Amino acid sequence: MGAPSGLKDDCEALLSRFQEMDSVRFEDFTELWRSMKFGTIFCGRMRNLEKNTFTKEALTLAWRYFLPPYTFQIRVGALYLLYGLYNMQLCQPKQKIRVALKDWDEILKFQQDLINAQHFDAAYIFRKLRLDRAFHFTAMPKLLSYRMKKKMQRAEITEEFKDPNDRVLKLITSDVLEEMMNVHDHYQRMKHVISADKSNPEKSINLIKDDFFENIKNIVLEHQQWHKDRKKPPLKLKVKGGEEKSERNSQQSERCERAESLAKIKSKAFSVVVQASKSRRHRQVKVDFSDSESGQVQTKTTRKRRNKETLKPAGRKVSSRDRGDMQNIHMEDKSLSLSMPVVTEEDEENESFSETEFTAPKRRRKQRTKS
Amino acid sequence: MAEDSRGDPACGGMDGRQDPVPSSGGFSFPEYELPELNTHAFHVAAFGELWRGRLRGEGDLSLKEPPGDREVTDSGCEDAAAARDLGCSLETAAELRAVCGLDKLRCLEEGEDPEVIPENTDLVTLGIRKRLLKHREETLRIDRACRQETFAYEMESHAVGKKPENSADMIEEGELILSVNIFYPVIFHKHKEHKPYQTMLVLGSQKLTELRDSICCVSDLQIGGEFSNTPDQAPENISKDLYKSAFFYFEGTFYNDKRYPECRDLSRLVHHDDCLDKTLYPLIIKKHWLWTRKCFVCKMFTARWVTNNDSFAPQDPCFFCDVCFRMLHYDAEGNKLGEFLAYPYVDPGTFN
Lengths: 371, 352
Fold this sequence. Notes:
heterodimer, A: mainly alpha, B: alpha+beta, 8 helices, extended, disordered N terminus
């Protein structure tokens, strides 16, 4: 009763393919569902007890993807998946979907977001589940046990389905930028005011480059754009035909050109600071403001978690994205050596994480317990 | 119902996650204390009220059969309701009904057996299941559920959907159901990781005494005393009647009774598919299966007697069924033969 059922693999395959479709339409989902014949997941002469257990497990698993921190698209996909599983199950009466009190408010908010964004099919589906009374309203998401199970499974979050953890954008938000701009303006004005010659402030108090703020803003926007861009093409890499590939290549070369030219401009204003390897982080070169001539900026090292993520053991969905990502980084790296990760850094990161990755499959290989 | 709204605005509001509880201190909002393992103690009635507050008036709490299953519904009426709830047009609602129909999810053709795994499937789950089925076909002569599996399934499902004969016995909407796990108290070495237990569903409105009475413990049935000279006179009284006092001990408070409940699992609101007959609660839905001790002589019937210092028995203690016990130890007139001490024995597997 402890063997892995393959449910996680199948659900994630479905959800990641749905994510690639870049749509939240139920029609598209059902096309995918039918092409994978997902409804047959209940086939195979399961006896009653096993049917119940399996269905419960399936619903619990799908439910996890319906809640934060997964992306909007994944959450909608999970909603559709729940609808599919609930209605195609063979248990009589049907196994219900457990919803804990702490999650209900979030779900209602999601429902409202769907309606506001006019994703009527998704909102309709949720409403239908509710009308069919598919939910059990509970205290916690799953029945808790006191030493009833031999091994405790900790729920792992699938990183590919999350929005990437972007520390740069978290740090430099639009509020921060606005405030920076205000402070900068104020500062410039003050300098004018206290100078003898009102129109031209003293050179001796020229401690900061005038366009400092502009540059920061551009870097952040650049970073944001980079994030957006790197999400799409690797997914389309799953060979749908030569056209897609060449499209992607031309897209990429465009971006590279642009990136290159931008980098050239920036490198004139800033000197490049290479991100030190993890082991030498304590000796990371820090640049300060004191030198007005070159106006160097302290770079923050952003840990690109995505690359570590692509090394997760679940083989299928990873391979092409992995390649795509690596290629992307490699090219961009040559041209935009700012706060982007250096390729060698990745290897080291990977190495240090490979241990944790390898333990995951071990954990999955659950022992067969007597049922 | 004990936890009907007391008119206290602090309890059961839509806001705030930790609604203060009027009488007892602590939370009413279930939160993990250790993730995935256990929660903080929370006030069950207040928790129930938090849910009911959110769901009242929305139809989620109703215990009637939902109309959805039957095809013969007024689709125009349905569409109007959908349009109203979603803020879309009537045409859109009708379109949605078509687009989101269950037929869009069907993966099998007409006449295809839902139990047969399709040939060329990419689903990992089915691959695993196929291999398992093949393995069963090759190694098992007869492939059916064993007694324990049947027992477990029966326990889980025997009361599902039951409606009471008397409508006064119907559970109220919004009632809470707690699932309580009661663990086997004896500490066997093999039970260190994985103790056998039973699961009981209790209504929020029921009393602890009802819970106590519903717990089947073999110790209750023990008959005290040595009866080798008077085997026919085992007394009417069993331990349960003799030792009346008992306590529950929950979260640092004694509620006088005498059992060993170790863990209280969590609660949920009642659903129309649950057992809706009040009188059947507390309802046992999971029981550990205990192997009964058989008579030493015939090895067929469950032991009813145990002897010590028995000149006829090859081991001490020795277990016998009633028939074998009398045949071995008494003559045709019922006179005691030989030397032995005899005690009535109640096997823990009695409740299987």
